[in-house]
Amino acid sequence: DEVAEQRVELLEACLREIAKGINDKFVATMTFGVVSTVKNDEEFNADAATLAVDGVERSFGEKVGLMKADTHVVEVSLDGYKQKGGKEMKFSSSGTKKLQMAPTTCKLTVNVKGPAGFDASSATIELVGADGASESLTSGEESTVQQGKWTLKVSADGYSAKPKALNLTSNKKVENITVVKEAAPAAGANAQ
Description:
The chain has 1 helix and 17 strands. With about 190 residues, the chain is mainly beta. The strands form 4 sheets. Strands 10, 11, 13, 14, 15 and 17 form a 6-stranded antiparallel β-sheet that branches. A hairpin with a 2-residue loop joins β13 (about 150-155) and β14. The chain is rod-shaped, with a radius of gyration of 30 Å. It starts with a helix and ends in an 11-residue tail after the last strand.
């Protein structure tokens, strides 16, 4: 019976080696990490990101076995960010994949200036998006706004500024805008 026990142990060892070879041939063992596309991104918090592989929630750094021949859906979620690149991936070998996240918002400060006597705190600052969405801002204060194309409109009683097109793509932006005193209506302009 001792010989039979040795044969079973030897057979189990052989089967483990065969299984390892099959696994190496058909399975990629992957770990995933997450990084921001913005260097030194102070807003980015990798610990708050969530990872799902083929619809199953996973942890960053966890080893995930994936069939090499299959296409896998790898999704990362993080408030204020979107996953860069495609979500469908194939893996031909084991390793680590760093998934990049791009901010969807940026910090915008609008500084309104005007002629002597102008009070910037009286200015109305409005960002109007291509989709009609609008955001109200305060002069000199940093605001978090969605990245994209906006029209910046600034006005105050008796003052105006030409609307300015903005394409907000960077992490931080400071926009300086100067208002001018509106011309008084010409005498008799409203007379009939």
